[in-house]
Amino acid sequence: MTPTLVRNHRGHRRTDAAPVDPGTRARDWAEIQERMLSPLYEAVYDRLEVGAGTRMLSLHCGSGLAMLIAAARGARVTGVDTDRDRLALAHARLTPDEDRGGAPARLVHGPVGAAAPTDGSPYTLLTAFDPIGCTPGDSDGLGPALESAVVLASRGATVVLAGWGPPERCATAGVLAVAERLGGGRTDAGRSARRDDLEDVAARSGLRPDGSGRVSCPFGYADLDSAVRGLMSTGLFDRAVRATDAFQVEKEVAEALHPYLRPDGTVWMPNVFRYLVCVV
């Protein structure tokens, strides 16, 4: 499965250095960027045979696309995040499924511990789909989150971690280098995950690796404007924005995207992501 090109989002490119409204950035994430990882979600769910017997907790669930796909397979899903704007969009996405009689989704704002099952039934699947490997230390918060989540899961439950693939397989790595250059000091942005990054996180969290895989997740955009807005919504360029200004960062991201601009005006960047399956 490959993501479809997102629809045009013209007329929104800012021409000053004013910060982007958090609600606008959350919508950019939900409407433009989040779907780029849908092949990863589908591959993991296929491998694990996610379905009616699955009780899933999605860490850093964002605007809920991974939850929506799992719920469509019959899973009972809970998502936890600290971003209220993304959670509001997740609620809007998942509520219609409840109205149609599907399994209810639960969305929790706050730390992972706040997502303890309300009916006493432990989770059978924990997912951390937010890929690590872009910047040094980007997995630092994942370990404590996993430790809090594991106690909410059943013995033998499955945990899935995700990371960027090798840099030579990730065209976006070159664009993410803008964050390193403008970020006011070396950040190694776009370096992509080392081979053992996911295993290191698993080991620190007391998890036992039980297989892994790689998935092609090309980033496809309807035009250059959509590509810039989608990438900016990830938060990976925030440090660069603080060091310079949003307009400068957007300008340089657009320039870095030109090698991936196709004759029809669309932007296409092949990428590979890696996932690690673990057992509690």
Characterize the largest beta sheet: strand count, sense, and whether it forms a barrel: 7 strands, mixed
Give the SSE order as H and E letters: HHEHEHEEHEHHEEHHHEE
Q: What do the pLDDT scores average to?
A: 88
Strand-residue fraction? Answer: 15-25%
Q: What gross morphology would you assign?
A: globular
The tally of strands reads: 9
Low-confidence stretches: 9-17, 186-193
Total DSSP helices: 10
Backbone CA Rg? 18 Å
User: In what order do the strands lie side by side in the largest sheet?
Assistant: 3-2-1-4-5-9-6
**Alpha-beta content class:** alpha/beta
Distance between the termini: 29 Å
Helical content band: 25-40%
Polypeptide structure, described:
The chain is of the alpha/beta class. Helix content is 36%, strand content 21%. It is built from 10 helices and 9 strands. The protein has helices at residues 22-33, 38-48, 65-72, 84-99, 142-150, 172-182, 197-204, 224-232, 238-243, 246-257; strands spanning 55-59, 76-81, 106-109, 123-132, 153-164, 208-216, 219-221, 267-269, 272-279. A 7-stranded mixed β-sheet has the order 3-2-1-4-5-9-6, with helices on both faces. Strand 4, helix 5 and strand 5 (153-164) form a beta-alpha-beta unit. Helix 8 crosses helix 10 (246-257). The radius of gyration is 18 Å and the shape is globular. It starts with 21 loop residues before the first helix and ends with a strand.
